[in-house]
Amino acid sequence: MEESLSLKRSIIKYQDTQLLETEDEIVIEFPLTIMINGQEFATMVCSPFHLEELVIGFLASEGVIRFRKEIKDFKLDIGAGFAHIELIQDKFVSQQTFSKRFIGSCCGKSRQFYFQNDVRTAKTSMSKTKITAEQCIQLMKKMQSESIVFKQTGGVHNAALCSSDELIVSRTDIGRHNALDKLFGYSLLNQISVKDKILVFSGRISSEILTKAAKIGVGIVLSKSAPTDLAIKLAEDLNITAVGFIRNGSFNIYSHPERIILENNEEESK
């Protein structure tokens, strides 16, 4: 079904000192405006797939809803690029709160959130999940092996929600935040508990991505790329294990290493 995320386009390719006419697979970019109770809330630029998951995950991430049942009516107008949401409670949803910058401390710790809604919705992880080093490597391999659109276009981010040894669901989008919101939306729509799950991600672990993971509620974030310093600080404060550079059988653990164990340690604990 992912072929709808890209299309073929005629291009000119330079190769071996020559200009050649050929075709390339181009990822599709789609603007989607979210209307809440008749008022414009936000416009997202995304991949036009799993849009209900995307919108629900985004609204939950921003603290507008906590559960799918809080939405009375949900209508997608793909042709016009709109998602019309009617909430059960006709509450006012402020764009200013959604976008207003906030930098402050929380619970005596230096949690440097950029936006006010992050303070309300980012959760300290209570996850007891532990995984082996080899499981980290295999989960990354499994996600990458399913990344068909990335292999075709190189223009999307991939994310997966996993148990310790298998992928539960993977999602693709041109926006790295969107891919995570789709996972969040999927878990809400299917009533999946995420506190014991693992987030596997293709891109850099920025502070925004780490905050998004905290909003979803996972305790372990695995990435094939690097983290930022602020992401590591947030991971330490929010009790999240951040693992990066999962490549060629190795990786780096940047916070809460107690959740990553060696295979022989796991056997001894049984």
Walk me through what this model shows.
It is a single chain. The relative contact order is 0.14. The chain has 270 residues and is an alpha/beta fold. The radius of gyration is 20 Å and the shape is flat. About 4% of the residues have low confidence. The protein has a domain of 139 residues: Cytidine Deaminase, domain 2, CATH 3.40.140.10. The strands form four sheets. Strands 9-8-10-11-12-13 form a six-stranded mixed sheet, sandwiched between helices. A four-stranded mixed sheet has the order 4-3-6-5, with helices on one face. β8 and β9 form a beta hairpin. The chain is built from nine helices and 14 strands.
Please supply descriptive tags for the structure shown above.
270 residues, alpha/beta, Cytidine Deaminase, domain 2, four-stranded mixed β-sheet, 9 helices, cytoplasm, FdhD, Cytidine_deaminase-like
Q: Largest sheet at a glance? A: 6 strands, mixed
Shape category: flat
**CATH architecture classification name of the domain at 131-269:** 3-Layer(aba) Sandwich
Can you write the helix and strand succession as a string? Answer: EEEEHEEHHEHHEEHEHEHEEEH
Question: Total helix count?
Answer: 9
Kindly estimate the percentage of residues that lie in beta strands according to DSSP: 25-35%
Highest CATH level, the class of the domain at 131-269: Alpha Beta
* Estimated structural class: alpha/beta
Report low-confidence residues grouped into runs of 5 or more: 100-111
Strand order of the largest sheet: 9-8-10-11-12-13
* Number of DSSP strand runs: 14
